[in-house]
């Protein structure tokens, strides 16, 4: 992908973008696992991109120089949540992501079974996390990688 961007740019042109870094929330890996158990291939760009060092290596291999990767971690969002509702909201948000087109091709019956499986597992995980928190709160945190690179 980065080679394609490199080819499009003129000499001295800059590529600038941002991307979330996995895990987006503590339940994100669980969400991908449940979907993949159903045989749906999910592109996990956050894992492909990985760390800032891996991002720098991938862009360098594509021919970019002056690569800068900044990590912007939002403060943890700590709050009381209803675990089942939170899981359902995550599932519905996932259906709208471009990384899950195969999921939308499944029958509504299969989608409902996967959603129920995910919400059950997510509820258990969220309850455990809230029990382990001294204030009984659930926390998630979004970390964004801001990237700039130049074509020499």
The best one-word shape is: flat
User: Residue-averaged pLDDT, rounded?
Assistant: 83
Distance between the termini: 18 Å
Q: Which ranges are low-confidence, i.e. pLDDT below 50, for 5 or more consecutive residues?
A: none
Element string (H = helix, E = strand): HEHHHEEHHHEE
Number of beta-strand segments: 5
Largest sheet: 3 strands, antiparallel
What percent of the residues sit in helical stretches (DSSP H or I)?
40-55%
Rounded to an integer, what's the Rg over CA atoms?
18 Å
What structural category arises from helix and sheet content?
Answer: alpha+beta
Number of domains: 1
What does this entry look like structurally?
InterPro entries: SAM-dependent_MTases_sf. There is one protein chain. With 152 residues, the chain is an alpha+beta fold. The protein has one domain. The protein has helices spanning 2-8, 28-37, 45-49, 52-61, 83-95, 101-104, 108-132, and strands spanning 14-21, 64-73, 77-79, 138-140, 143-151. The strands form two sheets. The protein has a three-stranded antiparallel sheet. The chain has a two-stranded antiparallel ribbon with strand order 3-4. The longest helix is centred in the last third of the chain and has 25 residues, at 108-132. The two termini are 18 Å apart. The mean pLDDT is 83.
Summed up:
The protein has 152 residues and is an alpha+beta fold. 49% of the residues lie in helices and 22% in strands.
Q: Topology, please?
A:
Elements: H1 2-8, E1 14-21, H2 28-37, H3 45-49, H4 52-61, E2 64-73, E3 77-79, H5 83-95, H6 101-104, H7 108-132, E4 138-140, E5 143-151
Antiparallel strand pairs: 1-5, 2-5, 3-4
Helix pairs in contact: 2-7, 5-7
């Amino acid at each position: 992908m980065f080679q394609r961007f490199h080819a499009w740019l003129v000499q001295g042109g800059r590529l600038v973008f941002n991307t979330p870094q996995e895990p987006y929330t503590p339940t994100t890996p669980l969400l991908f696992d449940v979907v993949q158990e159903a045989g749906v291939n999910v592109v996990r760009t956050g894992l492909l991109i990985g760390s800032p060092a891996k991002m720098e290596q991938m862009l360098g291999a594509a021919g970019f120089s002056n690569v800068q990767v900044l990590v912007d971690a939002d403060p943890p969002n700590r709050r009381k949540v209803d675990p089942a509702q939170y899981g359902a909201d995550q599932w519905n948000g996932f259906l709208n992501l471009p990384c899950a087109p195969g999921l939308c091709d499944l029958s509504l019956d299969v989608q409902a079974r996967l959603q129920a499986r995910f919400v059950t597992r997510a509820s258990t995980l969220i309850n455990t996390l809230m029990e382990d928190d001294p204030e009984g709160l659930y926390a998630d945190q979004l970390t964004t990688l801001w990237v700039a690179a130049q074509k020499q």
